[in-house]
Structures are given as structure tokens and as C-alpha cells.
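Subject: Interface between my chains keeps coming out wrong

I've been trying for a while to get a sensible model of this assembly. When I model each chain on its own everything looks fine, but I need the whole thing in one frame so I can look at the contacts. Pasting all components below, labels as-is. Any help appreciated, I'm running out of ideas.
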Amino acid sequence: MDIQNVIQSACAKAVETLYGAQVGAEQLQLQKTKKEFEGHLTLVVFPLLRISRKKPEDTAQEIGQWLADNEPAVEKFNVIKGFLNLSVATTSWTRLLNTIAQTADYGTVKPTAQSPLVMIEYSSPNTNKPLHLGHVRNNLLGWAISQILEGAGNRVVKTNIVNDRGIHICKSMLAWQRWGKGETPESSGKKGDHLIGDYYVAFDKHYREEVSTLFAQYKAEGLDEEAAKAKAEKEAPLIKEAHEMLVKWEQNDPEVRALWKKMNEWVYAGFDETYKALGVSFDKIYYESDTYLVGKAKVEEGLQKGLFTRHDDGSVWADLRPEGLDEKLLLRSDGTSVYMTQDIGTAKLRFDDYPINKMVYVVGNEQNYHFKVLSILLDKLGFEWGKDLVHFSYGMVELPNGKMKSREGTVVDADELISEMISTARQTSEELGKFADMSAEEKDEIARIVGLGALKYFLLKVDARKNMLFNPEESIDFNGNTGPFIQYTYARIRSVLRKAKEAGIDFGSEVSKSTPVNEKEQNLIQHLAEFPAVIQQAATEYSPSTIANYCYDLVKEYNQFYHDYTILGESNEEKRQLRLVLSEQVSNIVRTGMRLLGIEVPERM
RNA sequence: GUCCCUGUAGUUCAAUGGAUAGAACAGCAGUUUCCUAAACUGCUGAUUUGGGUUCGAUUCCCAGCGGGGAUACCA
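Reply #2:
Try treating it as a single job with all components included. I did that and got this:
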């Protein structure tokens, strides 16, 4: 059915007939013809020269001639150097468009009960501060990759592991006790996560004051720069007190636990708002306070089996030097767990809860080493998917003046960013006069969809592995390769389709096979037909940007088409039919593509 | 020190080993009796350096230079 496949096998047959050799798919490089040349598909004949034993031009000429004579889908051909450009017959295009139009959710594959079960972990916040731009990238990538994998035919379980315990929480708790005067989200009017974040910052401010005082003192006592700094950081009363609090927490001290619980609830309420605004959700949430003990047990088990070793001071280690890595700590000498221990525990709980075939961790690239180690450890401990767990490793978001540091206040807050995007979208819409005849609710909804679309697309169109730059003043644009550009084209197509309906034009979803198809229309149909392959590629490479860039290219091509031809005003009925069906399919695919990225599209804007 | 990622127009990003390296933004010049001008058209402008593999290298390999990260009894 698919033209690419038809021609590919025809090429194979041509080579076999002409030169008497079987060729594999690797030697038959069939690609889309570049814009400057005539044709739709191009066969690169260089790899075939060894078989044909002829010059590139002659080889291409012979194969082209054979195809034109024997393959009805090939209408004509031309040869430029080693490139054989093939033009596909008109009827093939109308047939292809009809196939696309009659397939629901063209490009996606529905998961079945037998499909692989993939678990995706993303977000994974600490509960001591609000979400920032880095988390936004994580959440959007996690959501998008979930949708893409599902669209490619996998069963997907989305999970979140909340880092709800540890020294960082104690810092906020201590600061709140010390300076909070009983402040709550209700009394202060602040979102819970922001309230707690403020106390985290307060802790750090006071802590640094203590450190600098002590530092001066130790230096006066004759310690050198480095030793004085290290000692001051360790001996500052505030940090010692925070550590004491952590110990109390581990010992289940009722007062500490109650405070911890109360403050975490505030934070969760705040996070939920942010998640909702971003449009992300989870099927199952794990809490580190539940998993760390499981991890400790699992490590003890590994110790029994002789996988790990205990040092004299009581600490437990995994020796990964045979694998070319270092020794890795799993339990501290005081018996408490570390990050790695908790991830092992979480893995066990997950495996108990779901029969997963594959595990994907959406975590920043600063933790590449951690996941390399985790993979080896899980494999040793007998988790089937441990060895080929996927660390979906994404790059940092950088600001024009460097990295984001929460303690230095150089962060871009998620909530603030979202509301700024929305209000910018609103302002732009107003300036362009888009809101003229809309209700207040409709205005709100469109500003929200467009503002978030701009943000999401901006973060998703970039190769996830790469660090990216975010300039708060300039970065987010509404023109060019942006979310709103795509949304706008979608809305305009929908408007045309509405108008067609109002005019009583019933264009159905099938075009007559004999309808003439011009070059721009052929190119658009060809573009649409690539969508299934694009989804599969995005899924196997874990690459949302592939879909984002595909949608942009498609929309850009449609815009040129839209500008050059009339649709409703077309006098030839068959032709009008073709253009309407084509437009509708472009909008359908754009909508599906955007859905896979977690971006909404408006019916009007 | 060792390991990993990364280097493309002024800027932000593209390019399964294929043709003259694509867009967008910024800049300059145009297009609206026509279905939404958040659009369309034109001009200017780039592969960090040196080797290697190949018919062909932005892409693969080696070395140098630049940027980021990891190597914590932090998470």
C-alpha cells in the first residue's frame, strides 16, 4: 500500500532482473527527493555499482527505465549523477490520500494486551522547594515520551518518585520552626510549595552567615583556607541541628514526623496545581519514605548472597571495578541509606506492583553515572529489565548568565513562567484583534492553550540530550518555529472546514482517483504519509523533537500551499474535494502530533 | 587525573554516510478587492582545528582546542 514500500521492492526486482543479484534494504537507499529536483523518491545508486559494474549514470538510467516500463506507480524518472529521481503516478497519490483519510488516528498503533508494558518515571521532585524550569523540561519530556510510546503501540505506566525525606526537608522544617511563627499557606496566601521554598532559602541565608563567622574564626586560629571552610560548613549550629532532626525523623519521633507530614501536604497541594497547569499526570506515585527501607533490605539480601561487601566501619559497598567503574557506597557506616539504596528499593516495589518489560527513567544528564551503576546493580540483584533500563537523559536548561541555582535565587519559577506565558498570549491575541467576538471563558481558554503551547513547544523541539538556552526576555516567541505558529495553522484549517460545512459542501473523506494532483498537493500527501514512520522513530529514539520538527515542517508546507491556492473558491469540484480532504488530514495529523507532545490545539484563535 | 555529553549563520535550533548544509529570530526589501496577515515572497549569512576510513563525512574513527557534567558516607 505504502508507496515507499512498493517502489522499494520494485527497485529490488529491477536490480535482480537487470544484474541478477539479490539486494538487501541497506543497499537500496530510497529517500525523499530534494526540493530542487524533479521527482518524489530518489534511489541512490552508488551502493549498487559493485553489482552493476557500470558507471553511476548508466546504472541509474537502466534501473529507471526498467521501473518506468514495469512498475505502474512510477510515471517517469530522471538521472542526475548517481541519483535516480522517480516521479510517482497521480492515481497513487489519490489512493494514498484516501488511505490516510480512512484510517482513524493515522500513524498511531493501538496497544493490545500483548504489547510490552513500559514504565516511565519522570518529574521526581524534592519536597523542599517549588518546581522550576528544569522540572518543567523534565515533566514535559516525560509526558511526551509516555504519549509517544503509547502512540507507537506500547502499554505505558507513568510514575513519579517523590523525594520526600532527607536533610533538605529538615532544613525547611527547621527554618519554619525557627522563624515561621506558625505561618501556613492559608494564613500567608502563598502556594504551599512556595511557602516551604521560602524557608529553605531562609535556612540557607542564615546558614551561610554562620559559616562565614566560623570561617573567620577558624582562620584566625591558624587553619588554612580549605580546612577552615570545610570545618565551618560542618560545625555550623544550624546544620548540626538539621542533622539531629533527620536522626529524629528516622527514629520516628512523633513531633518531627507530624511536622514533616503537615509540611509535605502543603507542598503536594502546590505541586498538584503546577502539574495540572502543565497538563501532566501519573498512574502511580511512589514516596521515598516508603521505599528506602525496602532498599536497605534488598542491599542486605545482596550482602548475604555475596554480591556486596561490608567494610570494617560497617558501611556496605558494591565493587564495580570489574565493570570498569568504581566502588559504590550502598549503606553508610551508621546504617542509613543513600540515593542508590532508595532507587533499588523503588525498583523492587515497582516490579512487585507491575509486570513491567521495560523501565524508562526521565532524569537529567548529570546523573548518567548513577544510572549506569543502577543498571548493573539491578541486574545483579535479578531484575529482568535492569540490564537494559533506559535512562532518558536530558540536558540542563541554562540561563543567559549561566546555570540555575536555587540557593542563589537564579531560578525561573515554573508557576510564574506559566502565568507569564499565558498573559503574554492574551496580550498578543488582544493586540491582533483575535478576541473581538469571544466570551470571557473562550478568551481565557485560548490564552491558556496558546501560552502553554508556546512554552511546551519551545522546550520540546530541541534535541532532549542537549543543554538548551532559555532567555526569559527573548526566547519565547510566537512567530516562526513555535507552538502558536502550528496552533494558528490548525485553527485556520478548522475555520475553513467550518466554512465549507456552512456553505453546504459535503466533502466526505474520499476523493475520486482520477482527480489531478499538482506538485504541491503531491508533496503534502507524501509528507502526511511519513507520519507513521516518524512516530516509530520518535519512540525508538525517545525523541519528542522528531515529532515537533515534523509538525513544523508539515505546517510550513501547508501554509505555502494555502497561500498559493484557493480551497473553498476552487471551481473544479473534484479539485475542491481533494483540497478539503487534504486540509482536513493535515489538521488531523497536526492534532495527533501535538497530542503526542502534550500540546493542545485550539479550534479558533 | 579518569570517564561521559557537547561544538553548525550574529542568535536559537535542524540535517538514517548522499546532491548546492535546512529553518526560525534579528536586519533589509516586498505581498492583502481572496477561505484567519500569529501568514506568504525575496536578499544577506555557518559545519572549532588537524589527520584517517569512504565513490561521498556536519554525521563514523584518532588527536588537539573550547563548553557542560560526573567521579560525595548530598539527593
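Reply #3:
Confirming on my end. The CA atoms of residues 261 and 427 of chain A lie 41 Å apart.
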